[in-house]
Amino acid sequence: MDMSHSLVEIERSDWAQLRDLYVHKRTESVGYQCLKNFISWIDQEPSESIKLLSLDGDWKTDGTFIIVANIGGCLKHVYFNTLTENLERLKIALNCLEGKSGDYLLFGYSAHLIPALENFAKRLTGKPLLPGEQEETVWYHASKKLVDSFTINVPEGIKLADLVIENAEQINEIWPHRAPGSVDFVRRLILYNVSVGAFDGAGNLIAWCLRLPLGSLGLLHVTDGQKRKGLGSLLVRYMSKKLAELGDEALAPVVVKNVASRSMFEKLGFRQIDSVYWSAV
Q1: InterPro entries, from UniProt (predicted)?
Q2: Is residue 124 part of a domain?
Q3: Residues 6+ apart with CB under 8 A from 196
Q4: Is 18 within the bounds of a domain?
C-alpha cells in the first residue's frame, strides 16, 4: 500500500457535483449513471454502506474516484473511474485500498482502465491479474431514437409487473453468478431500482430483468419452459423504456460467451460500445 498518499472520503453533499463531472460519460459503465444510482440508493436509505473515496481529497481536478460498497455478497464491490487518459492517480488510489486477497469484487470496469489495476491486484493476490481471471462482457447501448421505436406487446396470459422483495430468493437461486450472501444484493436491486417481472396466469414469476448499480440492465432471465417466446426481448424493450422515462441511457453488459443473449440484443438494435470486466481479487 502506498503510504505517501491516502484515500479521503468524499462528503455526501459533494456526490452530485462529482456525478455532474461525468455528465458527458453517460454511456460509460462506471460513469454518470452509476454515480446517479448510488446517490439514489443513499437518498432512499442513508445507512447503506457505500463510500465514495478520492486520492488525497482531490476529486475535482480529474474526477478520479473509487466507490467501495458493501451491498450484499461475501465481497465488497469496488467501482472506479477517472476523467483523464493518464491513469497514474487512479493507479495510486487503488493501491491505497486496504485489504487482502478475497476481499473485493471489481465491478464493471471499462477495458481502458485495466492498466490501472496492475499494482493493486498484484499486491492483494501476489500475482498479476490475468485476462482469464477477468469476466469479459460486451457493453451494449441503445440510442434514444431506437428505444422510442420499441413497442410493448404483452402476450395473452402474461402480466408485467414490478418485482418485489419476495422474488429475490427465486432470482438469486437461478443467477449464474450467485454466491454466499448474494441474495441480499438482489434484494437491494429490487428495493432501490426499477425492475420488471413477467408472470403467468397463475401468478408464477417466469422471467425478469433488473437494473444493476452501474445503471444498466442486468440479471435478465427467462425460466426453462418459457424460452423462445420472446419474453427476454419484451423485458429488455420494457426496461429500456422505463430507463428512458427516468432520463437515463439503455445499457447492458452481456457475457461474451452468451451468444444467444448477444444475438438478441443485436437483433433489437443495441450496439457494442465497449468491453466491460468483472474480477474478484
Answers
A1: Acyl-CoA_N-acyltransferase, Acyl_CoA_acyltransferase, GCN5-like_dom, GNAT_dom
A2: yes
A3: 160, 161, 162, 163, 208, 209, 235, 238, 239, 242
A4: yes
Domain count, the chain: 2
Domain extent at residue 211: 142-275
CA dist., res. 190 & res. 211, Å (int): 8
142-166 average pLDDT score: 97
Confidence class for position 132, pLDDT limits 50, 70, 90: confident
For residue 2, pLDDT over 70 is answered with: no
Residue range 47-62, pLDDT digits in tens: 999 999 999 999 999 9
Length of the chain: 281
For residues 149 and 134, state if they share a domain: no
Q: How far is CA 119 from CA 54, 95, 116, 278, in A?
A: 18, 7, 8, 17
Cα–Cα distance for residue pair 246/162, rounded to 1 Å: 15
pLDDT digits (tens, 9 = 90+) for 91-123: 999 999 999 988 999 999 999 999 999 889 888
